[in-house]
Amino acid sequence: LLTTSVKNNLISDVPMGIFLSGGYDSATVTDIATRRHADINSYSIGFTAWERSEHTFAAETAARLRTHHHTTMMDVEVQDIFEEGAQCYDDPFGGTSFWPTKRLAQVARQDITVALGGDGGDEIFAGYNWYPDGTTLDDDSITAYLTHMDWGLMTGGEVAALCFLPSAERSTPGMLLRERIDSDIKGIKALQKLDLETFLPDVVLAKVDRAAMAHALELRVPFLDPDLVDLVFSAKTSLYKKTGQQKPILQNIVAPRLGNMLATRPKQGFSAPLENYIPFSTLSRSVLDGQAIRD
Fold first, then answer.
1. Chain centroid to CA 2
2. Which residues make Cβ contacts (< 8 Å) with residue 154, sequence separation at least 6?
3. Does residue 282 carry a pLDDT above 70?
4. In this predicted model, what pLDDT tens digit does every residue of 168-178 receive, in sequence order?
């Protein structure tokens, strides 16, 4: 079904390419796509002097899969980040990777009109670090998950105030999700379902869709084919989630051409080195408390 989904998403009467990072999801999409088309453009973003930049991994993957690869190195002023974000997002948005995603779309749009991405792979194959290592779910695992979800530019009190919650009911952003965990679903699929309902549409897809459409680029996500999602969620979790092993199903798909090169890399999300920009925390706080608007 994944192969069929990628094949269907490759149908286009305009130029198309792939967003390629250093992980399994985009590598799998690229692997399947290049088995059917020999002339594929791939695009990645890199950051100079940042140890978590994935651009070298993406370039290595692209070389093995023989795509026409394009790497863009970034270095922009923090004020530009807010100005670009304000053009795309109409509400507070804490996903810091909107900035490189938007720039990636801008660069890719010079060559292509449609791009494929690996978004959704972590949700359906339980790839996030905030899922427990095994397949079972207990109170400690739920607490750890909610702690991971407690992130963003706003404090718990600010989030609660935006939700018009009385002060007595205010809690951290992560704890607001606890009541939405489906108790009828056993194991980590309960957390996967919650991510499919919240984190995926509200953060991941909101980020990539708005960033891409800001440059008139259509982004397609083969992992979110409804039939594929239904199949994975109807299967035993142990088929796609194994202790100490990242996404074994995807490993098997890419192994013939990529070997074990991805298996040795630690899991990391697509992010940006905002900690390197000293003014960021000050500027973000001035936006949230209204000082920037008053100025």
1. 18
2. 92, 94, 162, 173, 288
3. no
4. 455 555 666 77
- Taking only Cα atoms into account, the Rg of the chain, rounded to an integer number of angstroms, comes to 20
SS (H, E, C) 117-177: CCCCHHHHCCCCCCCCCCCCCCHHHHHHHHHHHCCCCCCHHHHHHHCCCCHHHCCCCCHHH
Q: In degrees to the nearest 10, what's the CA dihedral of 224, 9, 119, 277?
A: -150
The residues with which 74 forms a beta bridge, in sequence order, are 47
Q: How far is CA 176 from CA 1, 151, 184, in A?
A: 35, 12, 19
Q: Which of 284, 279, 269 is nearest to 85 (CA)?
A: 284
What pTM was estimated for this model as a whole?
A: 0.84
H or E element at residue 227: helix 226-234
| CB-CB contact of 211 with 102 (8 Å) | yes
Whether 16 contacts 112, CB under 8 Å: yes
- Cα-Cα end-to-end distance for the chain: 54
Which residues lie closer than 8 Å to 110 by C-beta, 6 or more apart?
Answer: none
Q: How far apart are CA 49 and CA 75, in angstroms?
A: 10
Q: Is the pLDDT of residue 278 over 50?
A: no
